[in-house]
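Tutorial handout. Part one gives the primary structure; part two gives the three-dimensional structure as tokens.
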Amino acid sequence: MNFTAKMMRFVFSPYAKIGLAISTGIILLYFILRAPAKIIETTKVAKEPYQEILLTDGVTRVKEIYSILSPVNGVLRRIQKNVGDTVKKGEIIATVDWDINRKIQSPTNGKILRIYRESEGPVTMQEKLLDIGNTQEMSLIVKILTEDMNHLDINDRVEISGYQDQILIGRISKIEPAAITEVSSLGVEEQKVPIWIDFPIPQDMGEGYKLDAKIILFEEMDSLIIPSAALVRDKEGWMVFADIKNKARKRKVTISHQSGGKVKILKGLEENEEVLLYPSEDMKDGMKIKSE
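Part two.
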């Protein structure tokens, strides 16, 4: 039997097929094992204070505004006061000439908020002349969407910013009983509830100041926290990928609160464990990974 015949006989023999299968398996295993690790970003599970918050804004409003009206038909003398001037209770703030001069006195201590008629001229009975109020007795009025009202309550703590560099601490003092309809910037009608927030008023703050408000709906000082960017939704609920010896490992987690980009974890993770941020859709359990 010549050499060519022997080779052909060997190629088609069972031993050759077995050897080929083993070689192919070894080659495939080699390429699987040498697959490059997926570059990922991770963060540590931390214990820290957690807040569930509602962000909004509003404007300051004097709690009790006194509108000064003309008591009779007559001629208003020019009002000598300006908006922002301080007035004392009983101080003469306007004069209307009729059969006799009618002196109009301030009903309270406060500041002039608005002047409707500055110039001298005819006025009618009950015509509004000016508004007076105490700017040290103001509230911040915010309007909350009705769907966000579920967890809101009287005396909830509020962090107020937007005035100089101060953070002012206030409390919800009043929730109005009826919603109002407003049109959003997109032209959509929205149902909102006006909320009154009491806070310490800085001496030089006035009415109509626009301020930012962070309403604290829930607060716990020692919570297990991860960024919401680590969460993945699956059929059974929430899960994350933990970095275990440079391999991605699926972990089912139980959460209790989620707000402001943070998630409070009840079960499934321990402090200082590493979890993947923004895991891609092709991330699989056991995949090799490498931190940036």
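Part three, for discussion. The longest strand covers residues 210-227. Residues 14-33 form the longest helix (20 residues).
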